[in-house]
Write a structure and sequence with these properties.
Layout lengths: L4 E4 L5 E4 L10 H11 L5 E3 H8 L5 H22 L4 E3 L3 E4 L4 E3 H11 L2 H10 L13 H26 L8 H14 L4 H13 L3 H19 L5 H9 L40 E7 L7 H17 L3 E6 L19 E9 L4 E8 L5 E8 L6 H24 L6 H14 L2 H17 L4 H16 L11 H14 L4 H14 L2 H14 L4 H14 L2 H14 L5 H13 L3 H10 L5 H13 L3 H19 L2 H4 L1 H10 L6 H20 L1
Amino acid sequence: MPVRLYINCLGTPEVLDDAGAAVAVPTRKALAILVYLLRTPGRLVPREQVADILWSKAPRDKAIQSLRQALRQVRRIEEASGTRFLEADKGHVGLAGGVLVSDFGVVSELLESGGAADFEAALARIRGPLLNGYETLDPVFQDWLTIERQRLMSDYTSSALKVVDTLSLLEEPDRVEAGCRFLLGLDSALEHAHQLLIKLYLVSGRKAEAHEQLKRCEAELKAHLDADPDEETLRLFNTHADAYVERSSAKTRFAVEPVSAMATANLCHSDRPDLIQLPQLTIASFVDADRLDSRAHTILDDIRSCLGAYRNVEIYENDNETQGVPQKVTYVDAGELGSYLLRFRHDAHMGLIYLQLENRVSGQVLFNEVIETEQVADFNRLREATSQTVNRIQSHVIGRLRARVGKQPFSRWCQAEALLCEFSPSADRKAVAILDELQAANPTYSVAYSGKASVGLKQLLHYPDFRATQTGSKDVLDLAEQGVLLDPWHVFNRRMHGWSLLQSGYYDEARRAFTEAARLNPFDPTNLMSIAEGMAYIGDVDEARRNAERAFSLFPVIPRFFYEYLANIKFSAGDYTSALELLDRAPTDGILSITTRIAAFLCSGRDGEARDTLDLLSRRHAGRFADVTRDRPEEVLGWLNRINLYQDPQTRMHYKRGADMVRSYLLAS
């Protein structure tokens, strides 16, 4: 029986028991009460104070009654977990000490320890803002939450600086770097942290990284403060007998525009709803709150969290929990983006949940679904059920926008994203045209930059043009960093940042970016599969397998390109036979998949089949290499080295066997 509960509320909230299993939380306000008490000194407050902050619009007597009902929901958490922590009498509400453990408390403890691993663990725990998505519970609660978020970040910054400023650059470089990375994770425009990293890299002889850090400092300061680095920052290079190197003025088609042009906007969380409008989705829950069991509540909350993780619909609540009677829903004229209604009804007697998605413009019922609560008793089945439900919603809401030409920025992004998924040079050229248009009209729309980074990565790895000047790894990284700078909570930005860092050789940073992308959206199988492949290249095979297994469990129909991703994971694990079997099910014309197939044949001792596969390479890509190996052999050699992303030394050597055979074949042609 658990003796403690763990509340993770930095990001999408969740409650776990000692075994790491999810504990159902009946309502969001029940969890909000717990976090409010945890953040209150002494963890004891008058009942009226809690009622006023969460039911500010209701008369005092009704607010107290609502609080009483919410506390009964808290008691359900105690019953489900076998833990007692709520202390409530007629006048006060409080928490017993030592029972509830919060992630924001754990972060504070890690910062007090201040080791390199502690800083990394602390940053990993900060999955997003405090109680992400809970701003709409009540206006007064929103004000409190805003202040608490600022206070929390200020406390973390002060604690980290207190440790980092006492460290020696020469004697404890790992702690200094980890501490600065933590500080920049909280505030990417904190110049003092940039200065410390530049000093560290210079005294360590890592001049290229010092220059790169200065460029990042410039970009962050321009974007957030519309300011240039202090003279003190620039003088660091003269102090260490190194001249400051200005960035090149040469621009390619994928070059990042100056961030200073965007400095007037709030780049991360704009308060301008007209900036980028999204499709509207209203969740109408027609249930009896007194009879709604914890699993039904958890399913509803998981659907909310899953929808929010995709960041592509504006979510509204039509809360009829206390009535249990469906109301007539009005239809609207929502324009090209569309407006939808998701009806949620729980039949406690039958143990069934009924879901129905409707188009609020036409009134058309798009799908009906029934979930048996008994069938989602464990976390994995719950996640699978809610993910597939939300993926069905996505297919209607986003699929409609992908299928037609629209004018709204989000519509255009959906069309560009669909083209990026086609994975072909012609589709990418069309996507770039849309992304250029988006960037010009909406310079703070982050995914326009990350989308271009995606195209640049594919050109570097999958279909290089050896006769033309290509986007370099540095250009791609600049674009990806621009996307993260504009919106660090968008999972597509984080994932593209991870791949760009991996291609540029920043492997630890790539791992952190992939980990953050998995936290931001653990529901999207495409996101998880891409992360799995990235983790395999980095060398974390176990984490790659876990993400791949989760992705396969969430996708109702497996796309063919997933098998190529999984083949790369199998190759990284040394299972070459399985890699070849998976490549047989994947698309066969990709230049990388053919090279991987050759390497897997060689590592399996099947040299003859490896040589036969070279003929496939020649047939599929003869035009790409015609005359290039003779006129520009260094271009081909550079590409062969670039595609070997495996960082485990043994795996890298095994893949190089295949790349060397391709090289010998091409140079002998």
